[in-house]
Write a structure and sequence with these properties.
The two termini are 13 Å apart. The chain is α/β, with parallel strands linked by helices. A hairpin with a 6-residue loop joins strand 5 and strand 6. The chain is 50% helix and 13% strand. It folds into two domains: 164 residues, Rossmann fold, CATH 3.40.50.300; 50 residues, no CATH class. The strands form two sheets. It has a five-stranded parallel sheet, with helices on both faces. A two-stranded antiparallel ribbon has the order 5-6.
Amino acid sequence: MVLLLFGPPGSGKGTQSRLITNWLGIPAISTGDMLRSEIQAGTELGEAVRCIMTSGGLVGDDLVNQMLVRRVSQPDCLNGFLLDGYPRTVYQAEYLDCLLADQALPKPIILHLDVPLDALVGRLTSRRQCPICGTIYNLLHQPPKKAGVCDNDATALITRKDDQEDVVRERLRTYEAQTRPVLAHYQDRKHFYQIRGDRSPQYIFEEITGIIEPLLAKNLAAN
């Protein structure tokens, strides 16, 4: 089973990725993880990536695609995998289509967490972090026990630059511009699912399991 998980910053995508992969026993693969892994392993690909990143450049589609091929050929991907943050471009999406077909892998199940803009801005601007221990709180859903200070060390909480409203709105605009064409590439597929992401993590996960379980049963019956 191949899953593609899409969602803007603040959609809860990271939480759902962990829940899904723990449930199914498959790895979650992100572009960032692949980049770091290749660099740490000191591979030829990793060295090329390191040089690009050191010079402040962007890693191109071709290098990312090569890393994906290496990653999904690992033994832990035998029963499937979840891609988080890939594909980022239509070119990557087209490459993935060819890769899955060439390796006789199943067509992907696309899960898109859709959250209204105002809800995303509210979630992200409500985040606070302890500058000492790094614990992150959310004033709406996971506030500290005492307003404004960390539960662990009573340090005054701060708003990270990334969580300031103007920065948040710019991040969301960038995500929208980059991701909409990729979603359009998949939108007419049989297994494209748009999921309301403005609900509790458990409710969203229950909807996702409700989508995946019948597909798993169908695959088992076919085998």
